[in-house]
């Protein structure tokens, strides 16, 4: 369904959003990060100065007891098989060399198409939507009468990370019974709440204003967090239904108690009046992407947490570096002093910005925040295993000019899914070494001119190293303790000279090759007038020319490929750019040499996933770039090896205003899953800009339980023939 322009309300003031991404999304999701100066003002070595001077999360599920051309690990390390041996596939994931899911690329959809478009031969259904009841006592969604208590028992808002795990820990396939796990990143009050005094403050004349009241804010807090929901289907390849009643269904919200663990747990930097131990914290927020571990837990990244806290002022340097400001867009400080930065709560913001681990198989297990993995604006974390069984996590800090990180566990994975093994494996992310990436290019600086033109050696490429921050339990950063490195990780990474990247989002590991892929979504601040940081070989664009006009910044993003020099624990690597994204008709795009006229236009790569055959799938946030490809966001497949490397093909397109999140590609079942986040973002409850996914038409009388406006939704795509 397309909403005619004359039926749309005026957009809110849009002074800074680039391309299609709306000003509303910018304000709510990332606190207008692109409106503020990039907080990384560190005097890191400029990149130009530098120049002149095995397993993905899904593919490894169930492999803790698989042997096929595998390295065998016994209790004493690599050696003869033993009763408690761990066997890990070496180099290639066994059994998958096919072409993967077959489909014909769809056409990019204009930005006002309010439809989820899939290839011929496929169809789609919702699995679960914002407001669907999942816990006892939850009633059928009634958006006219939403309450905090109901929201806490319903599926939350703005689903982002997604996985569907086998119901039985250790099972290899999802079978017919699964655990759907989703993040709920942020809320949009204008779309969620009716324009009544129940949810909005009134002025002196009794008129409803656009300032949400305490009741609405309480609902917002209940709509954040995560959800676990049981799903069932008649057979693999058939659509799932969620189970409204199940003992495993669970909501995590701002009232859920978390354990803080790792080297910074109990630090003075994490203590508050409410938690003098520095080891317990209520809630998680702005949970963006994530990852599923080989031992069957789910990781979630606390991303733009800064937008929820009034700065306390105790550490102005850290406040500035993390973007914690004098005001918030959420206004929760009016309800709870911990958001206000006042006396006793100076450290509350330090208790957010972590990687969270949730065990969906154990509804009673408290979720954990892992300080060993550092504190920054975590997009997510994806874990693979080294040949000797160490857990290796790759992580992006999603901000312009921020960094890519790696964590290597001290302990090694335990085989199988026994109670003991599961308990042991859930400690792996509690202790280990933390590194940040430094990329060095191999082409002359003069050849990286900001246009995106490929240098004369034929590639954006070079070498790199993982710079140590914490190794062996000791700080490797001069003047900073371990606790300081982990709580103020950005400041530590600045000191060691990490490479400033163009908003590193998801970082995913190929199940076939063990290579690592980093989605750099865009950077509006890397421009020709930026005198601090210019184009670099791993971030080579600062402008593009469209129709004779110059558009400053890296508007379309790119994807970095990292090749470990040896095992995943190696501190050395080589790298190259897989894609320099954008309208292939515009100069300065690059698709690993694949003919540009044959690729789908793609912009702003965000979440990444692999299919079992080793094809990379990219979901986008902000797709469009230039007027020549102002299109809805989507999901794209791109092979990364062989003659098809770089052949980007669009699989689906999400509805008006939405972003594509959390892709899962299950080529064995012929199914694809995505989270459709923030459909109709610029609309309001009274004047929706999307009717996805239920399409109760404007002017029609909704039946009980129907909602005129959009609902963030988990979608399954499956074959019709
Ligand atoms: Fe929440 Fe980095 O996207
Ligand atoms: Ca080069
Ligand atoms: Ca994201």
Automatic annotation (TrEMBL):
In residue numbers, the region (Disordered) covers 521-542
Any Pfam family matching the protein = PhoX
Fetch the InterPro entries from UniProt. Answer: PhoX (IPR008557), TAT_signal (IPR006311)
Composition bias, Polar residues: 521-533
Cleavable signal peptide = none
SUPFAM superfamilies, per database record: NHL repeat
What PANTHER family would the database entry show? DUF839 DOMAIN-CONTAINING PROTEIN (PTHR35399:SF2), SLR8030 PROTEIN (PTHR35399)
List the protein's name. Answer: Phosphatase
The opening ranks of the lineage are: Bacteria, Bacillati, Actinomycetota, Actinomycetes, Micrococcales
